[in-house]
Amino acid sequence: MGTLTDDAYWHASLIAERQGDAKLAVADLHELLASREISQAGQSYERPKYPVAQMRIAELYRDRLNDLRQAREEFRAMYESHRTSSLADDAVWQDGIASLRLGEPAEACRAARLLGERFPDSRYRRCVKSLCPAAEPPKGAHECPGYLQAQLEPNAEQPRSAVADPEARDVD
Predict the structure, then answer these.
(1) 8 A C-beta contact, residue 126 and residue 143
(2) Which alpha helices (DSSP H) does 47-104 contain, by range?
(3) For 36-47, how does the pLDDT look when each residue is reduced to its tens digit (9 = 90+)?
(4) Residue among 14, 36, 38 nearest 26 (CA)
(5) Coil/strand/helix, residue 48
(6) CA nearest to 123, candidates 153, 87, 156, 76
(7) Element (H, E) at 68
(8) How far apart are CA 62 and CA 74, in angstroms?
(9) Contacts of residue 55, Cβ cutoff 8 Å, sequence gap at least 6
């Protein structure tokens, strides 16, 4: 197994989604992630498509399968399993939005706290008060930008991450 196999599963998931079978697309991405191994001696087995595959699974549950609870679990799996990915803070933000939409403000506050603790330089940090009224944005932070604030609207369509978007060019 390697990056060529990852590419095969990735492209199979894109085809499945184009054919309207989001469940098969998710299954293909789970197969891609199934070969992930844990390193014992400081090396990494993390291959480039692992984080984007996990993010895409979450987005498919949210956008195509309309399963917000499972989407939130997959966003959590993304930022817990791929802590150093540039998508990790995006996944925490989406976890918070999903929590609000599920009517679970305590979980949204947990996501807001996590943004502050784990991602101090994240663009989402200045929006934590929107996720959780008790959260405090960083001192001197600008207001939450309108494009992020709009994502918090109850029926707002959520953006798909650029690297996990099947319409985007192939990613490595």
Answers:
(1) yes
(2) 49-63, 68-81, 88-101
(3) 655 555 555 566
(4) 14
(5) coil
(6) 87
(7) helix 68-81
(8) 10
(9) 75, 78, 87, 90, 91, 161, 163, 164
Q: 165: which 2 tokens?
A: 């978007």
* Distance separating alpha carbons of residues 90 and 119, to the nearest angstrom: 10
Express each pLDDT in 25-38 by its tens digit: 999 999 999 876 55
Show Cβ contacts of residue 100 under 8 Å, excluding neighbours closer than 6 positions.
108, 131, 152
Report the candidate in 159, 142, 139 with the shortest Cα–Cα distance to residue 97. 159
Residue 141's pLDDT band, with cuts at 50, 70 and 90, is confident
* CA-based nearest residue to 119, from 86, 95, 152: 86
Q: What are the chain's domains?
A: 3-158 (1.25.40.10)
Q: How far apart are CA 45 and CA 42, in angstroms?
A: 10
What residues contact residue 92 under an 8 Å CB cut-off, 6+ apart?
A: 75, 79, 111, 114, 115, 118, 119, 122, 124
- The answer to whether the beta carbons of residues 26 and 61 sit under 8 Å apart is yes
